[in-house]
Amino acid sequence: KKLGIALVGLGGYAGGQLAPALLKAEHCYLAGIVTGTPSKEKEWMDKYSIPKENVYNYENFDNIAKNDAIDVVYVVLPNSMHAEFCIRAAKAGKHVITEKPMAVSVAECDAIINACKENGVKLGVGYRMQTDPYTNEIKRLVAEKPMGEVQYISSDAGFVSGNNPDQWRLNKKLAGGGALMDMGVYAIQSSIYGAGANPVSISAQEFKTRPDYFKEVDESITAQMKFSNDVVGNMFTSYNANANRLFVSFRRGWAELNPCHSYGPLAGRTSKGEEIKFPFERYYQQTTQMDSFAKHVLTGSTNFAPGEMGKRDIIIVEAIYKSIEEGGKTIPLDLGDMGIVK
Ligand code: NAD
């Protein structure tokens, strides 16, 4: 069986990446759409052969409960709308994938996790890097230690925001935050899989060079972390600098991904040259990601981006904002192994 996925929110990412990726998927397909823009309905129905009965808007969305063709609801809306639609999807008895950031507060992450538990549905975050082969190779180097233990990591994630002051990404209410909410979660993610452990403390600084443009949200943030295995590191995220790199320093060498969170294929190298190389032929990241979640639903295989992982990252986001508010104070974190998938 192939699972039927309904995409909620047919913007740039749903249209440009997820829908095309679903055409290549083995265990799921694009079965339905949920949109607030009536003009998109016919365009998508024609393009992806979606029957009228699988098309919903934000008002009648809850009727999806009665539609057996839809197994999974994938929420691809502005960040502050994730929680509402994930919870409505769970109550409709559908498995849920939410785009990153999972939600705009830890309280909202908890509400999503609880709604999924109460309704007996599976929950995943749209963390496409967690099933990327380059990421997995970093995880292998960290776990198997061919170059020894990790000592230090550095991770950067940012892009230069164009001149569009009206976009939701610059609106605190819709985005929940700026660069940190959007790109910062990638830096948090790669810091953690690069270190192979969760941070136990974090301290952060914010920099604003275009205050007239970034009126409501953060532009650039740096943060320093200590991890539970004594790795130390730093991360940088920005809406005003292109940055896309993970550096992992081992006792006897180093590995680097650059780019480290693009749609792929990524590029990687190590200090060992020909000895430790990154594979990999062309692959389709979002296809792999959604197939992996579908397999999890169908067979109980590993969920590589569970809700707990999304929530952990928002705990870290909140700690970063708190540190900035308190003038860079070091904030302790008590995460244990939360969100670490073995
Ligand atoms: P987008 O602006 O291109 O699309 C947003 C969609 O939401 C549009 O279809 C819009 O009509 C709809 N919408 C509904 N209510 C809205 C409102 N009040 N204001 C603005 N739009 C509204 O954004 P996007 O780039 O597709 O991002 C959507 C989500 O996907 C975000 O959470 C983002 O972080 C995530 N995303 C993830 C990746 C990834 O690589 N995993 C990449 C891009 C975006």
TrEMBL record:
<dbReference type="InterPro" id="IPR055170">
    <property type="entry name" value="GFO_IDH_MocA-like_dom"/>
</dbReference>
<dbReference type="InterPro" id="IPR008354">
    <property type="entry name" value="Glc-Fru_OxRdtase_bac"/>
</dbReference>
<dbReference type="GO" id="GO:0016491">
    <property type="term" value="F:oxidoreductase activity"/>
</dbReference>
<dbReference type="Pfam" id="PF01408">
    <property type="entry name" value="GFO_IDH_MocA"/>
</dbReference>
<protein>
    <submittedName>
        <fullName>Glucose-fructose oxidoreductase</fullName>
    </submittedName>
</protein>
<dbReference type="GO" id="GO:0000166">
    <property type="term" value="F:nucleotide binding"/>
</dbReference>
<dbReference type="InterPro" id="IPR050984">
    <property type="entry name" value="Gfo/Idh/MocA_domain"/>
</dbReference>
<dbReference type="InterPro" id="IPR036291">
    <property type="entry name" value="NAD(P)-bd_dom_sf"/>
</dbReference>
<dbReference type="Pfam" id="PF22725">
    <property type="entry name" value="GFO_IDH_MocA_C3"/>
</dbReference>
<feature type="domain" description="Gfo/Idh/MocA-like oxidoreductase N-terminal">
    <location>
        <begin position="4"/>
        <end position="127"/>
    </location>
</feature>
<dbReference type="InterPro" id="IPR000683">
    <property type="entry name" value="Gfo/Idh/MocA-like_OxRdtase_N"/>
</dbReference>
<keyword id="KW-0560">Oxidoreductase</keyword>
<feature type="domain" description="GFO/IDH/MocA-like oxidoreductase">
    <location>
        <begin position="137"/>
        <end position="254"/>
    </location>
</feature>
<comment type="similarity">
    <text>Belongs to the Gfo/Idh/MocA family.</text>
</comment>
